[in-house]
Amino acid sequence: MDEFLKKRVITFLTILFLVACCSVRRAEARVRRYKWEVKYELKSPDCYKKLAITINGRSPGPSIVARQGDTIIVELKNGLFTENVAIHWHGIRQIKTPWMDGTEGVTQCPILPSDTFVYKFVVDRPGTYLYHAHYGMQREAGLYGSIRVLLKEGESEPFRYDYDRSIILNDWYHKSTHELSLGLTSINFAWINEPQSILIQGRGKFDCNTVGTTTTLCNASNPECAPYTMTVVPGKTYRLRIGSLTALSALSFEIEGHNMTVVEADGHYVEPFIITNLFIYSGETYSVLVTADQDPSRNYWASAKIVSRNSTTNGFAIFNYYPTHPRRDPPTILPPGPHWDDVAPRLAQSYAIKARRGFIYPPPQKSDRTIVMLNTQNTVGGYRRWSVNNVSFNMPHTPYLIAYKHNLLHAFDQRQPPDGYDFVGYNIFAPPPNPNATISNAAYRLEFNTIVDIVLQNANTMNAKNSETHPWHLHGHDFWVLGYGLGKFDAGKDSERFNLVDPIMKNTVAVHPFGWTALRFRADNPGVWAFHCHIESHFFMGMGVVFEEGVERVGELPSSIMGCGDTKGFYKP
Amino acid sequence: MDEFLKKRVITFLTILFLVACCSVRRAEARVRRYKWEVKYELKSPDCYKKLAITINGRSPGPSIVARQGDTIIVELKNGLFTENVAIHWHGIRQIKTPWMDGTEGVTQCPILPSDTFVYKFVVDRPGTYLYHAHYGMQREAGLYGSIRVLLKEGESEPFRYDYDRSIILNDWYHKSTHELSLGLTSINFAWINEPQSILIQGRGKFDCNTVGTTTTLCNASNPECAPYTMTVVPGKTYRLRIGSLTALSALSFEIEGHNMTVVEADGHYVEPFIITNLFIYSGETYSVLVTADQDPSRNYWASAKIVSRNSTTNGFAIFNYYPTHPRRDPPTILPPGPHWDDVAPRLAQSYAIKARRGFIYPPPQKSDRTIVMLNTQNTVGGYRRWSVNNVSFNMPHTPYLIAYKHNLLHAFDQRQPPDGYDFVGYNIFAPPPNPNATISNAAYRLEFNTIVDIVLQNANTMNAKNSETHPWHLHGHDFWVLGYGLGKFDAGKDSERFNLVDPIMKNTVAVHPFGWTALRFRADNPGVWAFHCHIESHFFMGMGVVFEEGVERVGELPSSIMGCGDTKGFYKP
Fold first, then answer.
1. ipTM exceeding 0.90?
2. Which end of chain A, N or C, is less surrounded by CB atoms within 10 Å?
3. B207 in the same domain as B96
């Protein structure tokens, strides 16, 4: 082989090697590392200045964008002064890392000021997820953001789009979480009431005129509260990943004059259907496809309207057609949206969501255990509470996961909460009598790898002829949504109508006013998992439960989750 | 012995026994147990509604009243939602219980929400003391109260009075401590500014007209902000135990038309002297005797005026002569008090305070070590800071006491801070150049049982021709106040003028503008002790140091103080 040929061969082999290398590298899961500092900052997301909890100075915080199989490492420094934090990775199942779920009191002790806690977990499924504070009511202070998990490189979605965008919807309160929390936990009960504004991707518009001219707290021309602008190129199709992290509100989202095709819910493909407005409840995520197919010489309103309560005026953003100026208001008035009190279209959307053909995970055909959960308001010991089967949840201060693993069983009530309520005698259409309601931190223990059905049974609140919408969120699992109904769930008849063919899997689902929602999951993720109404104040007032499953299979717990409650007694120098 | 006599003898012996018993019981130290819950409450101490941190619903919190030698047990439940707490027992030396000093970061980890921490300590000396939050700037949120330690039963004071009363003076801010803390720790520095009002025993008067009529936050006729009334009986003498826990302000306290005789300072008897107004700095306590010897047909103003800063209008209370109506305003205008900028009378009071004859603890005639502490403002890394010898203190998140005892020495900077500054070259009358200022958590290690002199050297702030008053407070000890002076301390000449005859002992002492203050103490209390400016924002900005002494003599630390920083690594199930 002459020198020239030799060189060419070497070059060729080198290139081959590099190409091979890179291909391997491209398919490999990556470690994505984030350094975050949680801090107070004065923010004016809706023109009104408020002390918000931010990440790296921002609310919503930085987005996590990763690929399926990647490892996420978030070094979270608590830069608050006297307050702790914990962050939950909403929709991430934390398989083999149940201590990384970020649920204070369930999976970890809170993170103390000036401490750095390292969250490390794998994002094992593509889809649209969220993160947010899971401690007290800190989510309402602005501590939240989005997680976007892309397919592995080279893989493709079963639908086509040109661009991918994330939008978080939220409602916003001007009072501090401390003051709101105080009102909810006082005998002299003070409800949080309706939010002051709706935020789209962290921006809203509060009417500064309502607070008078003597204060400098509100400034309508603050650029921080200029509406969020989504610029689109005519003819292109956008995947909008829409998540809701409202404290309270159910929302209807729409883009004036544009249809939306629903393709994903909570990380699962949806058999596509077209809507003009998307109903979305706190804790849910959806991907919709929107094509910029309207007159490109103007802009359009995007709006978020509160439904289910007669509440705050709509939040809005600008759907901006390039090259129209992004700050140019649309020539139209804001779309009014659906009537707040019209439940029918919301039910219709819930019913419409099925797993996409070709991507159906068939549910087990029957369950090993059914827990019916009556959702009621109560007064317990003079305090206004929410409860499940007359048990109002309160968080112990030794996290369940640690307590179970290390036999600190005195840390919480060892009785099991009830699997049902008085199906025959209880009238779900009347305010609850419930003289036997209690406050407890008892937990459900599920047999490992069994199939569990949950039927959420809605009922009348303490106000006559009133029932609310509650989005329930399950940690550590997705569940099949087997069915919805109005009125009292009938175990015989209604379970025969369960969708066992193509139910969607989700992690958050609504139970509608005076209705029921049935879901099924496999208790196959060793750990302890919260299941609760995602309305932050409702969970704070007791609307939640905890499931333990296979905790004996959980590996050694990291010391970083310790330090509170009885885990201080572990001290052995 | 006949039956009758026998009975009488038995009766007599029984009585004798009971008398003996009771006498013993009377002299015995008692255990005094308190159950406190720390909670947020909406309070209007100065008519303006604010979220305050309260104890059992009150701010100031409940008073501790005990006798010398009693054991105090406070079961402190943290009822905040996401915030920790720690309470310092100001003036109690915590002999043999250094872990009960309540100084977060120095002697304990903070107390987590819903945790109950049991403080247990002996009040070994009679006198007037205080308690308050020692975590972040929570003191400013209202978490404070008074401790009154009486002589053992049967013992008597060297002065006569009829009644004993405690009054705490404070200044009050309407912004939350979170917002104030944020301003102080931002590159875009926001000073806390002057307080909105002065509180006397938790009551002040903010002018509601200044906030306009659009808000319901301020209500001038709220009974919570009716002035504090001290009712006196004509002719009687009152011991007023006056403590100051201002966030910032130096105060002058007076009772219109009444002289006051100073008899106690920080738990030590003072050679009595008569004043018309008492200058008092944050962290100090004084007992003054006041005789109700004026025209009893009217009331008199008590007033607290800010000195050393041209600040907020005076706080006031009503000195009410029984049976005049307690709500009847005095017929006079509020006494104007001394001019805010007149330093001379304040120096005069400092110089006047000596130990009372017959109660003099003679100081050691010389010291083993002298640490001169230059007090300056600096900008370090873009942040506005206070520093001592160019070192600005920051709190580590593993408490020193635990770190020293358990060799977690990586938890803080192991170098020792400097014992002095550039005495020759540094101009205390000019703004500091200080290009070499640093932020550090290094601590001073003092040889056990040695005599330590501290000379606090005041200097110009970063504003030309400005020097402030700083009250320095030492934990775990009383110190002898050896002298004060103006200008730069001269180690040769000035130390020869030290008062080694009858210096008062105190735990808090002021260094006056452009002046110096010398103090001496014996490092005989095994533990780790903070020494810092008692202006809460100044300490928060770095104006403090930490002393370790004889930590090897400290007994086993309770696990209840653990849980934070590196003490989580102690986890061994």
1. yes
2. N
3. yes
